[in-house]
Amino acid sequence: MKNILNAPFLVEMVRTATNMYSHGWDERNGGNISLLLNEADVAGYLDVNSVIREIPTGFDAPTLDGKYFLVTGTGKYFKNVQYDPAQNLGLIRVTNGGKTAQLLWGYSDGGKFTSELPAHLMSHAARLAVNLDSRVVMHCHPANLLAMTYVHDLDTRAFTRTLWQMCTECIVVFPDGVNVLPWMLCGTNEIGEATAQQMHTARLVVWAQHGIYGAGKDLDETFGLIETAEKAAEIYMKIALLPRLNTITDDQMRQLARHFGVTPREGFLSE
Ligand code: 2HA
Ligand code: ZN
Fold first, then answer.
1. Known catalytic membership, residue 221
2. How much of the chain exceeds pLDDT 90, in percent?
3. Domains in the chain, ordered, with CATH?
4. Averaged over 28-40, what is the pLDDT?
């Protein structure tokens, strides 16, 4: 058996959590990540028949039955992931229609997966229904996106259009836009279901006054999505109180979409 601490998926997860912490997106125990793995990725590092313990999830996710996920632990600090991956991360297999997580590695102090597992697994199911390459769900608390939810209209189209206008590349990076949920109680199945519902139409979902969810095919792409939206929100927070003399027009955004071969969300650019 190879050492799981050297597995590319684990190394990348540790680097990503560390990088997110360095960006200031994950204060204290804020944020969580889940990474979908193939059994073949895992098999060289673990005996997949050796279950350490079974943890109830409290919800159903039948389409994820038998799937493997590397997931950050509840109450754990992203700051510390690099120093003790086995305590701060866990590798689980979803069974029993989603109701049970079988722990195969990690949570070494008796811990368990993030309190946001419902939002993560339901979002994985939603994104996999749209794109079979989707493997990552990432949640964090970037300051400018959060700030923006206090001062900007929370309408999804209005919020997306503002972000698109803040940096030329935004419409290219997230042509599907950013869906916005109003404030809801976190850590519940309800916010999980609402987030997953929004994940059918966009890979970014803002939780007003809380943070953001991103989904993508790998850790880099998902990090980059959030990074781009956060950069746009930063520009917005710098200019929102100043008279706006210039902008990126809808016509310019159409040129960008044509040039880079992306399709902006239907109805989000004016005619
Ligand atoms: O504590 O970010 O939303 C982790 C969170 C909850
Ligand atoms: Zn959070």
1. no
2. 100
3. 1-114 (3.40.225.10), 116-271 (3.40.225.10)
4. 98
Mutate which of 29, 80, 81, 138 for ligand 1 pocket (most atoms within 8 A of beta carbon): 29
pLDDT given at position 271: 79
Could you tell me the distance, in angstroms and rounded to a whole number, from the CA of residue 176 to the centre of ligand 2? Answer: 23
Nearest ligand 1 atom to alpha carbon 26: 2
Q: Which ligand is nearest to the CA of 72?
A: 1
> Is the CB of 72 within 6 Å of ligand 1?
no
What is this structure's pTM?
0.98
Atom of ligand 1 lying closest to residue 140 CA = 2
Could you give the residue ranges of the DSSP H alpha helices within the chain? 8-22, 39-43, 78-81, 85-88, 117-130, 143-151, 156-166, 170-173, 189-199, 219-239, 250-260
Q: Which residues touch 206 (CB under 8 Å, ≥6 apart)?
A: 145, 149, 159, 178, 179, 180, 181, 212, 213
Q: Which helix (H) or strand (E) holds 106?
A: strand 100-106
pLDDT band at 151 (very low <50, low <70, confident <90, very high): very high
Cβ-contact 109, 53 below 8 angstroms: no
Distance 111 CA to ligand 1 centre (A): 15
Q: Residue 134 and residue 219: Cα distance in Å, rounded?
A: 10
Report the C-alpha gap between 173 and 113 in whole angstroms.
30
How many other β-carbons are positioned within 10 Å of the β-carbon of residue 116?
Answer: 24
**Ligand 2 is an ion; residues with CB less than 5 A from it:** 211
CA of residue 24 to ligand 1 center, whole Å:
14
